[in-house]
Amino acid sequence: MHALHLLVDDSLNTYRKVRPNTNIQSGIGLIELMVSAVISLLLISAVIGLHVSSTSAYTTQINHVHNQEQSRIAFSFISRDIRMAGYFGCLSSTSLLNSNLNVDNDGNLFDSKWSLEGIENASATPSWLPSNHSATALNVRLGTDAITIRYADSTETAFLQFDAEATGSINAVDKGNKFTVGNIVILSDCDKGDLFQVSNEPSSSNILEHAVGGISPGNLTSILGGVSAAEYEASPNGPSQVSKYYAVRYYIRNTDLSDSTSPPGLYRSYVSDQGKIYNSEVIAGIENLQFLYGEDTDGSGTPNTYVKASAVGNWRNIISVQIGILARSIEQYGFESEQRQAAGGDFGSYILLDETITIGNNSRYQRAEYSTTVFIRNKL
Q1: Does residue 191 or residue 11 have the better pLDDT?
Q2: The pLDDT value given to residue 336
Q3: Taking the C-alpha atoms of 205, 208, 212 and 214 in order, what is their torsion angle to the nearest 10 degrees?
Q4: pLDDT for 157-207, tens place per residue?
Q5: Which among 311, 291, 324, 320 is positioned nearest to 380, based on CA atoms?
Q6: Could you give the CA distance from residue 192 to residue 230 in angstroms, rounded to a whole number?
Q7: What is the mean pLDDT of residues 301-321?
Q8: CA geometry: angle 351, 354, 358, nearest 5 deg
Q9: What is the C-alpha separation between 235 and 225, in angstroms, rounded?
Q10: Where are the alpha helices (DSSP H) in the chain?
Q11: What secondary structure does DSSP assign to 183-208, as a single string?
């Protein structure tokens, strides 16, 4: 009996040992929680890093495209005009042009003596070369170049139907509708030329008058050729022709003249159809403009050297122009460390033609330099 009791107790003890305890609860521990948190943070950091990287790459690409497009537009404007510099029909030189305009004919846009002029590395009181006329009124951005280009518009031309006497009217054949009162025009043949302002409305009569007074700037004299009265012979399709006078200046200035830190842009000053001079922005985001002039010193028809405006020996021997543009993004982005270092330059410096442009630190704009060469089609 006693032995049987012991056997039963042993069986119960064995049963209790193998039976699961359903009263104990199980779950995640502190260590598992910390590991999960770390993994989550790593994943979130990776996602954020990817987003920042993508955004930065997108911004960089957008700014790059913007700089390219702004420069392309600037080159298009300037190159087109440089190619036409010095065109005045079959007239061989602007030194043969006579101005009848009532203006200070010394370096301003109406100065027909020079088809091409330049400003080199503008100071606070810049001057045009070779006329040495002051350019202070344009507010050219310090350290930048500027250029003046003059020519006759070949798309706005009429040939003479009858001979034009020194004091007589000019018959523009059937092309009088190309001109209107106030237009600054050039009458020229292969030997001479006259710059004057149209004083009447020729659209219906095809007759161009060049009287004194009545409009601005007006004509100082009504005699073609000035002191040496000149006559122009009619000839079908040439050589005597009358064309609209075109003159333009390209330069860099700040958009807000009262704030030297305001964004820069490419501007132009030009003669309007009414004989007035206007200034307007061509394109924003152009920070610097540089020019080098290709001078033909031996008459070979090719440039022997490219020099600054201040080093040109004879402006009438210029046959090509190199243009350098430094474009920058409209908005700031990133950090100072993202500033590009140009080859051969210091941090924040750019090589633009033969000029080193130093930007300095903390500007946070994306920049790029571009250049091109334009050949002039006409003898200056």
Answers
A1: 191
A2: 46
A3: 50
A4: 888 888 888 888 888 776 777 889 999 999 998 889 999 999 998 877 888
A5: 320
A6: 8
A7: 95
A8: 40
A9: 19
A10: 2-18, 30-84
A11: -EEEEE-SS-EEEEE--S--TTT-EE
Amino acid (one-letter) located at 188: S
pTM listed for this prediction: 0.82
* Contact of 185 with 208, CB cutoff 8 Å: yes
Q: Report whether 77 contacts 282 (CB < 8 A).
A: yes
What DSSP assignment string belongs to 48-81? HHHHHHHHHHHHHHHHHHHHHHHHHHHHHHHHHH
Show the tokens assigned to 315: 């402006």
* Number of Cβ atoms within 10 Å of the Cβ of 201: 15
* Model confidence band, residue 12 (pLDDT cutoffs 50, 70, 90): very low
- Which residue do the tokens 């704009």 mark? 365
Burial of 324 (0-12, 13-18, 19+ CB in 10 A): buried
* Pairing state between β 193-197 and 97-99: parallel
Q: Are strands 184-188 and 241-254 parallel, antiparallel or unpaired?
A: antiparallel
- How does pLDDT run across 52-94, given as a tens digit for each residue? 666 666 667 777 788 889 999 999 999 999 999 999 988 888 8
Rounded distance, CA 18 to CA 33, Å? 32
How many residues in the chain? Answer: 380
Supply 308's token pair.
Answer: 């600054």
Calpha distance 300→59 (Å, rounded) = 48
- Closest C-alpha among 295, 266, 355, 292 to residue 75: 266
At 246, phi and psi to the nearest 5?
-125, 130
- Return the amino acid letter for 329: S
Name every residue whose Cβ is closer than 8 Å to that of residue 41 and which is 6 or more positions away in sequence.
none
Pairing of strands 184-188, 116-119: unpaired
Residue 154 φ/ψ, nearest 5 degrees: -70, -15
Q: Which two tokens stand for residue 148?
A: 């003046």
Average pLDDT (243-254) is 95
Helices and strands (H, E) in the chain, number of each type: 2, 16
| Beta-carbon contacts of residue 122 (< 8 Å; ≥ 6 apart) | 135, 140, 141, 142, 143, 144, 145, 146, 251
Q: Measured between alpha carbons, how far is 288 from 102 in angstroms, rounded to an integer?
A: 35
What is the rounded distance in angstroms from the CA atom of residue 302 to the CA atom of residue 283? Answer: 32
CA distance 102 to 199: 13
**Token pair for 346:** 């210091």
